[in-house]
Design brief:
Blueprint: H1 25-43, H2 47-51, H3 57-68, H4 72-86, H5 91-127, H6 130-138, H7 144-160, H8 165-203
Helix pairs in contact: 1-4, 3-4, 5-8, 7-8
């Protein structure tokens, strides 16, 4: 005998259908926005830098074209196209591009920190005569007379509220010293590696 309640309070056939994990509209929108932002970051970088980013050529071309467009409306439309091309990338390609962008940011932070360290050292040279002695100990080939003159001129500039010409030149001298030291350390590291290779060869 048929059950009169069937259909009104019984189970529905859809209850046992498998559920598919589909991304929500808000999630899709977030992903699209993130890719658009990534495309914008790439457009704002130097062309030579963009050319070195690991990405499909059609995506790179869209970005490079966008960089050349000066017209506001034309650039806006091309930027939308860049976003569209970014959405064709797979997860591995996106991860690789993001890793590259992150490495730029890390390098930029390191450069900024190094610059601030040089600025602090310059200020110390102007405030404390002992700071020059410390610098001479680190850099024996330093032109001390030149730097003394620069420090004296920079102090005079500050006292008389003049343009900071010598002040900037001191920063450049410190920057050059840092570069020379880094190059020397790199050469020492290379020589050390060669010595180790020679030792290994001798052992054989």
């Amino acid at each position: 005998m048929p059950n009169p309640n069937r259909g009104s309070c019984g189970y529905q056939s859809s209850e046992f259908e498998p559920e598919y994990d589909r991304p929500s509209k808000s999630q899709l929108k977030r992903e699209m926005t993130a890719l658009q932002k990534m495309g914008q970051e790439l457009v704002e970088q130097a062309r030579e830098r963009v050319k070195r980013v690991p990405m499909p050529e059609d995506v790179r071309e869209a970005i490079l074209i966008c960089q050349q467009i000066k017209d506001h409306e034309g650039r806006r439309r091309q930027m939308q196209y860049v976003g569209k091309k970014m959405r064709t990338l797979d997860e591995a390609e996106i991860a690789l591009i993001q890793k590259t962008i992150d490495s730029w940011k890390g390098a930029s932070k390191a450069e900024t920190a190094a610059m601030h360290a040089l600025e602090r050292r310059r200020d110390k040279l102007l405030a404390d005569d002992n700071a020059l002695t410390e610098l001479m100990a680190e850099h024996p080939h330093l032109d001390v007379q030149q730097l003394r003159t620069m420090i004296r001129n920079a102090r005079k500039e500050q006292a008389e509220n003049k343009p900071p010409k010598a002040y900037r030149e001191i920063f450049q001298i410190l920057k050059d010293l840092q570069k020379s030291k880094a190059a020397a350390n790199a050469d020492e590291a290379d020589d050390s590696d060669l010595d180790e290779e020679d030792d290994e060869f001798d052992d054989k």
